[in-house]
Amino acid sequence: MGRLAGKGAIVVGAANRDNMGQVIARRFAAEGATVVVAGRKREELERLAGAIGGHAALCDITDREQVFALAAFAKEKLGHVDIALNATGWGLLKPFLETTEEEFDQMSALQFKGPFMFYQAVIGAMDRGGSIIQISSATATIMLNDHAAYMGAKAGTDHIIRVVAHEFGQRGIRANSISPGLTATPMTAGHMAIPGLTEAFLPEYPLGRIGTSEDIAAAAVFLASDECFMTGQNLQVNGGLTLRRNPTKEEMAASIARAAGG
After folding, report:
1. Enzyme catalytic residues
2. Is the pTM of this model over 0.90?
3. How far apart, in Å, are the Cα atoms of 231 and each of 7, 24, 51, 212, 234?
4. pLDDT score recorded for residue 111
5. What is the pLDDT of residue 205?
6. Cα separation of 254 and 241, whole Å?
7. What are the backbone dihedrals phi and psi of residue 57, each rounded to the nearest 5 degrees, phi first?
């Protein structure tokens, strides 16, 4: 019997082929959960739901009405919501002084306001307790050049997770976040394909490699399971990166130049 047998789960941010959300959803299903996968691409969601024996739901996490409709849909289909994980997000690469108000608002809506509303919605559907999990980022803890709006929103979401843990623990609801570092996903594939870029990061990883979505999924299963006696915590699943630091822009440029023979 799987570690999540009999549990009903929601995974938001599972609409892109083989992204972190999809890997987590597949792992939840393999551990026995019935999963509602949500995002903004119907065809891909339905493909994934069919493959894992779950359900698909369209949801833009920045739209309050859609977020609450997702929670209601999951409660109807699953009977009970025990696990709610948010893996939505994208990184805005922009210098601090060049970040526009519109870009800041977009980051805040997706990375902070949206998760806030998602937690509100799923708490109402967790009538027998449960586990809320947020995919955060190591950059909420350590610096990375030119990601100010992204980093600030992720740090804020980490703190809201602590608030949820504090306020709803007596209802049997746990809330935790996971902070990956540089992780091999479809979203990062373009950057990681640049010769020399990954090599700039590797010296900062005590375990000697960057992460995979499977690493994050394994941590998510633990946080979702009844084995977990943790709440209000940020789990640093990044090979030890947060013991050190991210490389600077100059170090990245030098590594890329070396790879090019410069």
Report:
1. 150
2. yes
3. 19, 20, 31, 24, 9
4. 95
5. 95
6. 20
7. -145, 130
Instruction: Give the number of other Cβ atoms within 10 Å of residue 12's Cβ.
Output: 27
Residue 231: how many CB atoms within 10 A of its CB? Answer: 19
Map tokens 């746990």 to a residue: 174
pLDDT at 262: 66
| pLDDT the model gives residue 158 | 97
- What is the residue whose two structure tokens read 């939840």? 28
| Dihedral, 110, 75, 5, 18 alpha carbons, nearest 10 | -30
DSSP code per residue over the chain: --TTTT-EEEEES--STT-HHHHHHHHHHHTT-EEEEEES-HHHHHHHHHHHT-EEEE--TT-HHHHHHHHHHHHHHHSS--EEEE-------B-GGG--HHHHHHHHIIIIIHHHHHHHHHHHH-BTBEEEEEE--GGGTS--TTBHHHHHHHHHHHHHHHHHHHHHGGGTEEEEEEE--SEESTTTHHHHTSTTHHHHHGGG-TTSS-EEHHHHHHHHHHHHSTT----S-EEE-STTGGGS-PPPHHHHHHHHHHHTT-
What's the CA gap between 67 and 119, in Å, rounded?
9
Structural domains in the chain plus CATH codes: 8-185+211-244 (3.40.50.720)
pLDDT mean values, one per 10 residues, the chain (262 residues): 97 95 99 98 97 98 98 98 95 92 96 98 97 96 91 96 99 98 85 86 95 98 98 98 93 87 76
φ, ψ for residue 18 (rounded to 5)? 65, 20
